[in-house]
Amino acid sequence: MADTPQPEADENWWRGAVIYQVYPRSFADSNGDGTGDLAGVRSRLPYLAELGVDALWFSPWYPSPMADGGYDVADYRDVEPVFGSLAEAEKLISEAVALGIRTIIDIVPNHISAVHPWFKEALAAGPGSPARERFWFRAGRGEHGELPPNNWPSQFGGPAWTRTTNPDGTPGDWFLNLFDSEQPDLNWNHPDVLAEHEDILRFWFDRGAGGVRIDSAAMVSKDPELPDLPDPSAGADAVLPAHPYVDRDDLHDIYRDWRRIADSYPGNRILVGEVWLPDTERFARYLRPDEMHTAFNFDFLACPWEPARLRTSIDSTLAAHAPVSAPATWVLCNHDVTRTVTRYGREDTGFDFATKAFGVPTDLERGTRRARAAALLTLALPGSVYLYQGEELGLPEVEDIPTDKLQDPMYLRSADTNPGRDGCRVPLPWSGDASPFGFSPVDSAEPWLPQPADWAGRTVEIQAADPTSMLSLYRTALRLRRGEGGLGDGPLSWLGSEQQTLTFRRGGDFICLVNLADTPAELPPHEDILLTSGPLSDDGRVPADTAVWLRG
User: Fold this and answer.
1) Which residues 6+ apart lie within 8 Å of 139 measured at CB?
2) ∠ Cα 47 35 396 (to 5°)
3) Long-range CB contacts (< 8 A, 24+ apart) of 147-151?
4) Which of 194, 396, 441, 494 is most buried (CB neighbours < 10 A)?
5) Is 74 helix (H, G, I), strand (E, B) or coil?
6) What is the dihedral angle through the alpha carbons of 227, 232, 237, 238, rounded to the nearest 10 degrees?
7) For residue range 102-150, what is the model confidence (pLDDT) as tens digits?
8) How confident is the model at residue 241 (pLDDT cuts 50, 70, 90)?
9) Which of 458, 476, 478, 461 is nearest to 364 (CA)?
């Protein structure tokens, strides 16, 4: 089919873009079934254009049993009927382009759904069949094969292996699933897997996608020997020469092939990696000029609201990207992470999946103040910014969802100890004073996750009319960012020596100051105040947890 033209823009648009993450299930419901859909997104495109974003990144919209919120993909060349149709997706991409907005789709290369035709064929074909070679089927250990083939853990808890059942009802081989048991891992040593994903990229680029976000990008390749992970208590002698499934060197050949495909299309299509790696040098390898364009910056996302830690994160991020001339990315929250307002109101303001728990107290007033300041901080930093839906409304994490309503496998596999990720995925409030708050039409089914009653004061309708709201802050900041030549991609220089504030210059005369001290901070010399995250003190100083944009 004919490729949808991309918006007119600088060929390096992605180096300083603001990209808005849409979680389709929770953005807007057009047909009243309680679940968001693509027609709902289309109806809200003017809102996104007014907000001022450059691109939309969609969490998976493909056919899926939803065992993991759509990250268990059954068919990459279609759209989940709950969300709409392929024709609807094509219209959305085209209509967004007409508003100057690109579309980035999600690709999940590590695994597919257990109902995908390939996996159904593999199960039916039986042990030793060619169809099973696209996956990681292995006999179990133990006298009767009753133990998993190795000790790898699932990211969602428990072993990363699931045992099959033979046609005669006896226990069969095991298959690898680093995530949910409904998400069998693919074998990227198999030529069918390589060819299929390259064809999927072309399929969506042909339909006008401006880029792809690559889920769990550093976990795709596996050591074919499938060795056990070392016992941490065994010391240095037990260390493997390379991790058996994280950041393996052969990954780079895969992404070089993908880059060649992206570069063969007009309009600068991009590859964005979800790369969780503590080693900044190895992280940067994914961003070499012939691999990915950008990758998510999880160090900054997880960083506590502490001046020294934030500055170190910013400096190390910029330093890691500099050798490969790649732009940094900045993100405060996404569909997996506790919402910023809630996290910044806690005693521990960092983020770690291992510490998620029920009943952790938070101060939402303090968290909101810090989230407003963090918005101006991130939007002033060099590179591109990712904005998760609802962050522009200052939505808190919903932490009182009844447990019988929770659907995230992270919760379901935790023996009721981990609240999972549903709290940041609650449907957005658009208007009105009661659920569904304009998310669905009147007299619709209940939203797929319950909305808090107090969100009546957080709707788009209410905030659009309030010049002091979080939404108004984001709209103003994005408008200023677009007009400031020194923002987006480019250098940063730190100013001053105060340890409790972050103050830096962008371009020739733009200054950002963020006060993380407990006491007010003095403004540096300036010509004009462009924007503040909150009111200044009566004597013109910057209160605690407040950010200011200045003309220097």
Assistant:
1) 127, 145, 149, 173, 174
2) 65
3) 148/174, 149/174, 149/176, 149/226, 150/226, 150/227, 150/228, 150/229, 151/228, 151/229
4) 396
5) coil
6) -10
7) 999 999 999 999 999 999 999 999 899 999 999 999 999 999 999 999 9
8) confident
9) 458
505 DSSP β-pair partners: 493, 511
- Per-residue pLDDT, 233: 67
Sheet with 501-506: list strands edge to edge.
Answer: 492-494, 501-506, 510-515, 546-551, 528-532
* 18, amino acid identity: V
Place of tokens 């600068």: 268
Question: Given the structure tokens 């300036």, which residue do they identify?
Answer: 526
Read off φ and ψ for residue 474, nearest 5 degrees.
-65, -45
Can you list the positions of beta strands (E) in 364-410? 384-388
Range 230-250 average pLDDT = 80
Closest to 39 in 3D by CA, of 89, 76, 100: 89
Q: Are the beta carbons of 319 and 325 closer than 8 angstroms?
A: no
Q: How confident is the model at residue 297 (pLDDT cuts 50, 70, 90)?
A: confident
* Residues 92, 38 contacting (CB under 8 angstroms): yes
Structure tokens at 130: 């060619």
* Amino acid (one-letter) located at 404: D
Give the Cα separation of 346 and 336 in Å (integer): 18
Residue from 203, 215, 260 nearest 57 by CA: 215
CB 24: neighbour CB atoms within 10 A? 25
Q: How high is the pLDDT of residue 508? A: 87
CA dihedral (456, 457, 460, 462) in degrees, to 10, reads 110
Whether residue 234 is predicted with pLDDT greater than 90 in this model: the reply is no
Other CB atoms within a 10 A radius of the CB of residue 489 amount to: 17
**Identity of the residue numbered 377:** L
Q: Of 4, 201, 34, whose CA–CA distance to 106 is shortest?
A: 201
Count of H-run helices and E-run strands, the chain: 14, 16
Q: In terms of DSSP H, where are the helices of 140-240? A: 191-206
CA-to-CA distance for 360 and 342, rounded, in angstroms? 10
For the chain, helix, strand, coil in percent to 5 are 30, 15, 55
Query: What's the sign of the alpha-carbon dihedral 263, 265, 267, 271?
Result: negative
From 383, 387, 364, 365, select the one nearest 375 (Cα to Cα): 387
Token readout for 283 is 């992280």
Nearest to 122 by CA among 61, 168, 186, 54: 186
Residue 552: pLDDT band (50, 70, 90) is: confident
- Residue-level pLDDT at 493: 97
Q: Is the dihedral of CA 118, 120, 121, 126 positive or negative?
A: positive
CA–centroid distance for 497 within its chain = 34
**CA quadruple 485, 490, 494, 499: dihedral sign:** positive
Name residue, tokens 């045992």. 163
**Dist. CA 152–CA 256, nearest whole Å:** 28
- Using an 8 Å Cβ cutoff, are 369 and 534 in contact? yes
First to last CA, the chain: 51
- Cβ atoms of residues 386 and 297 within 8 Å: no
The dihedral sign for the CA sequence 466, 470, 476, 482: negative
Beta strands 510-515 and 270-273 are unpaired
